[in-house]
Automatic annotation (TrEMBL):
The keyword Transcription regulation does not apply. Keywords: GTP-binding, Mitochondrion, Nucleotide-binding. The lineage of its organism: Eukaryota, Fungi, Dikarya, Ascomycota, Pezizomycotina. This is Mitochondrial GTPase 1. It comes from Penicillium canariense. It is found in: Mitochondrion inner membrane. Belongs to the TRAFAC class YlqF/YawG GTPase family. MTG1 subfamily.
Length: 341
C-alpha cells in the first residue's frame, strides 16, 4: 500500500469570514478603557494552543501601560506534562514577551494556579491599602478568563465558584463585580474583575481565523464546521496521523472521514444518512477535549523567523483593522437592503 502523505499546505482559505467584532466586544472594550484609572493591574489571558494568534493587539493599545502579567490558558490541551516538547514550547513563548511575567496554566492543575496567586501576592500592590488592589482580567472570548478567576478565588481564599463559565464564547457580557482572591493582614486585599471576551475587528490572515474558531473564540455557527474539520485534519495529520484511527485510516479527505465518524458515533439523520454538520461539530469537540492529540496550532519557529526579519510585513494596525471592519459591515448592510428591495 502507498505510504500516506499528509498535506503540507491547506488549500481552502477562500471564503472564510474575517471578522467577529460584536456590539458587546466594542462596548466592553470602551468600558474597560474608562475604568482604567481605578485598575492597578491587568492579567491578559491568551490561548496556549495559539499563543501568537490569540494576542489581541487592541489590549496592547488600550491597556498597555498598566502593570500586567500574561497567562496562557488551556495548557493541558497544547502539550503533555513533563514532556521535552512542553519545555521547548514554553521557553520559546516566554521569549516572545521578555518584559512581562508569563504563566502557563491548566486550571485543573492546582500548582499552575498557585504560582499565579504567589506572584500576585508579591507583585499586586495598590496605592490605597483600604481600597485594595484591583486586577482586571482580559482576553479573547472563551479563552478561560472566568474559569481562571474561579480557580484563583478557590485557591486564594477557599471560596466556591463565583462566575458563570461555558464552552461557547460570550458567556460574560459585562464587566463583573470585583471578586476577592487574596487576603492580606494589612487589609490590602487583591480583587479581580472579569470582563467580556473581546475579539479583534478584522483578522487579516484567514488561517488565523480558522485557528481562533477551533479554539472556540468565535461562535461555532460563524464558520462552516466542515471547513473547520478540514483544517483540523490538516493540522492533526502534521502532528499524528494515527490520532483518529478509531474512525478512519489516515486521510486528507474530510468528507469520507466525517461520513465514517458519523456512522460509527451514530450521528445519523433520516433514513440513516450521516449528519455531516453534526459529525463535524462533534469531531471539533473531541479535539477541544484533547482526544485528538495535544499540540499547538501556531508555528513558533515561523513566528521567531518573522520577529527576526527586519523586512517582515508589518501587522495590520488597529485603526486599519477597524476601518476594514466598518467597510465590511457597511457592504453587508447595503447588500441586505438591496436584496430586500
Ligand atoms: N481543558 C481546559 N479547559 C479550560 C481551561 N480553562 C478554561 N477551560 C474551558 O474553556 C471554556 C471557556 O471558559 P470561560 O471561563 O467561560 O471563558 P471566558 O474567557 O470567560 O469566556 P467569555 O465569557 O467568552 O469571555 C470552558 O468550557 C472552560 O471549562 C483549561 O485550563 N483547560
Amino acid at each position: 500500500m502507498a505510504q500516506f502523505v499528509p498535506r503540507q499546505v491547506f488549500p481552502h482559505y477562500g471564503a472564510i469570514p474575517r471578522s467577529y467584532f460584536l456590539g458587546h466586544h466594542r462596548a466592553g472594550l470602551s468600558k474597560m478603557k474608562n475604568m482604567l484609572s481605578s485598575i492597578d493591574y491587568v492579567v491578559e489571558c491568551r490561548d496556549y494552543r495559539a499563543p501568537v494568534t490569540s494576542i489581541n493587539p487592541m489590549f496592547e493599545e488600550a491597556l498597555g501601560k498598566k502593570r500586567r502579567l500574561v497567562v496562557y490558558t488551556k495548557r493541558d490541551l497544547g502539550s503533555i506534562p513533563q514532556s521535552p516538547a512542553r519545555q521547548v514550547i514554553e521557553r520559546k513563548v516566554r521569549s516572545f514577551d521578555p518584559t512581562s511575567a508569563v504563566f502557563f496554566v491548566s486550571t485543573s492543575t492546582r500548582a499552575d494556579v498557585a504560582q499565579i496567586i504567589k506572584h500576585l501576592r508579591n507583585d499586586a500592590e495598590a496605592p490605597d491599602k483600604l481600597v485594595g488592589c484591583r486586577v482586571m482580567v482580559v482576553g479573547m472570548p472563551n479563552v478561560g478568563k472566568s474559569t481562571l478567576i474561579n480557580h484563583l478565588r478557590n485557591h486564594g481564599v477557599g471560596k466556591a465558584k463565583a462566575l458563570k463559565t461555558g464552552g461557547q464564547p460570550g458567556i460574560t457580557r459585562k464587566i463583573a463585580s470585583p471578586v476577592k482572591i487574596i487576603e492580606r493582614e494589612n487589609g490590602s486585599h487583591v480583587y479581580v474583575l472579569d470582563t467580556p471576551g473581546v475579539f479583534m475587528p478584522y483578522v487579516a490572515d484567514a488561517e488565523n481565523m480558522l485557528k481562533l474558531a477551533l479554539c472556540g473564540c468565535v461562535k461555532d455557527a460563524v464558520i462552516s464546521p466542515v471547513t473547520l474539520v478540514d483544517y483540523l485534519l490538516y493540522k492533526v495529520n502534521l502532528h499524528d496521523t494515527q490520532a483518529y484511527k478509531r474512525w478512519s485510516e489516515p486521510t486528507n479527505e474530510v468528507m469520507p472521514l466525517l461520513e465514517s465518524f458519523a456512522q460509527q458515533t451514530g450521528l445519523l439523520g433520516k433514513g440513516g444518512v450521516p449528519n455531516i454538520d453534526g459529525a463535524a461539530l462533534h469531531f471539533i469537540q473531541k479535539w477541544r477535549a484533547g482526544e485528538l492529540g495535544r499540540f499547538m496550532l501556531d508555528d513558533l519557529d515561523e513566528e521567531q523567523r518573522r520577529r527576526d526579519d527586519p523586512e517582515q510585513t508589518a501587522r495590520l494596525s488597529m485603526s486599519q483593522a477597524l476601518k476594514i471592519e466598518r467597510t465590511t459591515r457597511k457592504n453587508k448592510s447595503d447588500v441586505n437592503s438591496n436584496s430586500s428591495l
